[in-house]
Design goal:
Layout: H1 3-40, E1 52-53, E2 60-66, H2 71-86, E3 91-97, H3 104-116, H4 120-129, H5 131-134, H6 142-151, H7 156-163, H8 166-181, E4 189-192, E5 195-196, H9 202-217
Parallel strand pairs: 2-3
Antiparallel strand pairs: 1-3, 2-4, 4-5
Helix pairs in contact: 3-4, 3-6, 3-7, 4-6
Transmembrane segments: 6-23
Domain Thioredoxin: 27-214
Organism: Hydrogenophaga crassostreae
């Protein structure tokens, strides 16, 4: 290898290193700004209308900002369930809606109607299982989600009536205002007892939950 090639490779490596360091610094600044905002707006993390899984009095609360059309949210659903099974008395999950994808607002209302009928979890799981068939980005087919919900036991006639009620839109609007105030820009976004993940991933979520459980048990 001649000196010119060595020089070029060295320059590319230096540029890549500065890019990597710059991106990390940028992510750190963004996360720090969000942490400050979340601390100042703690009351926006959980609302009375928010769906909750697990014991209401659990000392550790996972808040998940969730879009039913989000593939990563679908992938994380069994991961979060596994964490809750690991700590059945210590952890609860609070769902907040972040309908970023086209048509997701209608599916959120469908889920809320399912909650009113006591069918939230079976309908949620059915809608997530069928997500690839209804949630094509740019051209979703929401009617499929409705059909799947009916097959999961939802009274679809009543659900369609519920969806048209003003209170349903007000509930969704509250979640949108909260995610905007908390600077949530992607799904899923997790907060564990108000703390954001140091970086995104299932291991990071598990570690933060474990840390909060250990702290709560002391």
């Amino acid at each position: 290898m001649n000196a010119k090639k060595v020089t070029v490779i060295g320059l590319v490596a230096i540029v890549a290193l500065f890019f990597y360091l710059g991106m990390n610094a940028y992510k750190s600044r963004v996360q720090s700004a969000q942490d400050v905002q979340v601390k100042a707006e703690q009351t926006r993390l959980v609302r009375m209308h928010s769906p909750v899984f697990g014991p209401q009095s659990a000392p550790v609360t996972i808040v998940e900002f969730f879009d039913p059309a989000c593939e990563t949210c679908r992938a994380f659903y069994p991961i979060v369930k596994s964490l809750m099974a690991q700590y059945p008395n210590d952890v609860r999950l609070v769902i907040r809606y972040a309908p970023f994808h086209q048509g997701s607002d209608q599916v959120v209302k469908l889920l809320e109607s399912a909650k009113n009928q006591g069918k939230y979890q079976p309908v949620l799981e059915a809608v997530l299982a069928a997500q690839p068939s209804w949630a094509a980005h740019g051209q979703p087919n929401i009617e499929i989600a409705f059909q799947v919900a009916e097959q999961a036991g939802l009274d679809l006639t009543k659900a369609r009536q519920d969806i048209e009620k003003p209170g349903m839109q007000a509930l969704l609007q509250q979640d949108i205002e909260d995610l905007t105030a908390l600077q949530v820009t992607k799904t899923p976004t997790f907060f564990v007892n108000g703390r954001s993940l140091p970086s995104f991933g299932p291991d990071q979520l598990a570690a933060l939950v474990n840390e909060e459980v250990v702290k709560a048990r002391k």
